[in-house]
Amino acid sequence: MFNNINFLEYNNNLIEKTLITNYNINDNTTILLDYISNTNIYVDKKSLLKINYCNYMGTNIKYYFGYTNVICNNITKNNINDLLCNILFKCNDNYVWSDLIIKYYNTYFNSYNNKQINILNKLLDEIKTLYLKIQQDILLLDKKKYDLDIVSKSIYEFMTDNLNNIIALLFEKIEIFYILSICFSDLNHNYLLIYDKDFLDNLKCYFD
């Protein structure tokens, strides 16, 4: 089902010419990598993989939500809502996704098969569940810890100790969804995904 998708761990020694040879890259191949979307800019790599001939797409959309290197390790109860406010919107009794997140999902929905739709919808549900849980739990951070019951106190301590990691997980899931919504669009088109090992390992879980 996913024979058109290859994975490669990012490192600072990657060269376009070698990629073309090793992965038989041609006009029917698109390289996906952690450039800021619609740019050729890496935000956190000292050595940039320069692409001059291959088709490529950047999938780092979290930058547009304000989740940058400057803020990712400095998230607090005071700025977390600024990161969350444009991901999901409540309209009456319904939730509406950011157009950026579901851009390719909406574009290619009729091209997906049932298994692909199930994977993408499951991932959207995971993102929504985590998003709403974060919104609910951060309200506790405005309270005095000693005023909370045992369960709430545990949540308070967990959120305090792991806020950066929780938000990192949320945006990782969003980027994985964005990537899969592209890769699932055409089984006759080949994709080479170049990302850090941990990210690739987590992405591959959705292919099981």
Topology diagram in text:
Layout (H helix, E strand, L loop, with lengths): L4 E5 L6 H7 L6 E8 L18 E6 L8 H4 L7 H5 L3 E4 L2 E4 L5 H6 L5 H24 L12 H34 L6 E6 L1 H8 L4
Parallel strand pairs: 1-6, 2-3, 2-6
Antiparallel strand pairs: 4-5
Helix pairs in contact: 5-6
Estimate the strand proportion. Answer: 15-25%
Structural shape: globular
How far apart are the first and last residues' alpha carbons, in Å? 11 Å
Structural class of the helices, strands and pairings? alpha/beta
Oligomer classification: single chain
Indicate the radius of gyration in whole angstroms.
Answer: 19 Å
Overall domain count: 1
Helix content: 40-55%
The largest pleated sheet is described as:
4 strands, parallel
Q: How much is the average pLDDT? A: 90
Number of strands: 6
Low-pLDDT runs of 5+ residues are none
